[in-house]
């Protein structure tokens, strides 16, 4: 261990500091450096020069020796090479990411094209479905019209009591007589009972041989406004304890019957004054003097 170049005494390891230029040892106290700073100088974190070496550096205007210059340039080249290698590595990574991005963008364009194609197909299917539904609605209305035409000679009589072992034609004659119309067998094509909404009575369906007979029967019912079970033959009116009104209506298809109920609801909710059925067709009129509208579907309601 070298002696202190300043005082000549040998410094301890904790107090010793070496000049970076001449490598001579010095006491920290001799050169006025705190012991806590010695570790920083020893580790190379800071460089300390003695007065002589410091003067030499100053006099040479901070010029390094050729060897020092060589070592500095070598370090710079090594640093630059490391930076360039790292830069090339980043460039390669960036190119790889760009390739992946381009691939994803290409896939995205494919998906976008597929989505657009699906949208167009959906629009075509919706248009096709709309066309099919319109055609189906037209066919339904045509079938309903054919069915209704086949039932135009028929009437529904509601509220007539049904005796046991009933002769339906005889009951029909009793009703005709009560209305003031004599019904012969030639007037009636068929008559039968079906269960109606009122479970107490089954509806009586009367199919007339001609529409003129049906119209006359309807006219008689309209004339006798207070027609009820009390007007029937004694064999029928004795079947009930309390007399009830007897209604006579045109016989409608299931479609027209449902449409009429909806039309009735629309009439009540929209201040429509007139709603009626004629020859199996439903008509609606908002006010007296306005035009009558034929109702074939719910779409016709807005025409009122």
From TrEMBL:
Keywords: Coiled coil, Metal-binding, Zinc, Zinc-finger. Residues 1-56 form the PHD-type domain. InterPro entries: FP_C (IPR057251), Zinc_finger_PHD-type_CS (IPR019786), Znf_FYVE_PHD (IPR011011), Znf_PHD (IPR001965), Znf_PHD-finger (IPR019787), Znf_RING/FYVE/PHD (IPR013083). Gene3D superfamilies: Zinc/RING finger domain, C3HC4 (zinc finger). Residues 115-149 form a coiled coil. It comes from the Eukaryota. It holds the Pfam family PHD. GO terms for molecular function: zinc ion binding. SMART domains: PHD (SM00249). This is PHD-type domain-containing protein. It comes from Phaedon cochleariae.
């Amino acid at each position: 261990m070298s002696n202190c170049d300043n005082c000549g005494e040998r410094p301890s390891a904790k107090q010793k500091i070496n000049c970076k230029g001449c490598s001579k040892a010095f006491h920290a106290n001799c050169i006025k450096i705190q012991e806590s700073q010695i570790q920083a100088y020893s580790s190379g974190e800071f460089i300390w020069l003695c007065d002589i070496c410091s003067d030499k550096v100053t006099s040479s205007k901070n010029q390094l020796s050729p060897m020092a210059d060589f070592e500095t340039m070598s370090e710079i080249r090594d640093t630059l090479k490391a930076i360039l290698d790292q830069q090339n590595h980043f460039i390669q990574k960036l190119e790889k990411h760009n390739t992946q991005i381009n691939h994803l963008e290409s896939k995205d364009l494919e998906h976008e094209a597929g989505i657009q194609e699906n949208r167009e197909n959906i629009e075509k299917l919706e248009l096709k479905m709309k066309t099919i539904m319109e055609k189906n609605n037209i066919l339904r209305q045509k079938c309903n019209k054919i069915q209704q035409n086949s039932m135009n000679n028929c009437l529904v009589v509601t509220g007539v009591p049904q005796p046991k072992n009933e002769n339906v034609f005889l009951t029909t004659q009793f009703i005709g007589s009560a209305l003031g119309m004599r019904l012969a067998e030639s007037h009636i094509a068929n008559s039968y009972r079906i269960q109606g909404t009122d479970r107490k009575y089954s509806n009586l369906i009367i199919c007339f041989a001609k529409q003129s007979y049906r119209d006359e029967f309807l006219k008689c019912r309209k004339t006798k406004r207070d027609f009820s079970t009390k007007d029937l033959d004694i064999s029928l009116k004795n079947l009930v304890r309390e007399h009830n009104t007897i209604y006579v209506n045109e016989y409608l298809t299931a479609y027209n019957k449902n449409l009429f109920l909806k039309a009735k609801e629309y009439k009540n909710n929209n201040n429509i004054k007139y709603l009626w059925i004629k020859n199996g067709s439903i008509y609606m009129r908002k006010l007296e003097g306005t035009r009558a509208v034929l109702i074939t579907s719910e779409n016709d309601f807005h025409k009122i």
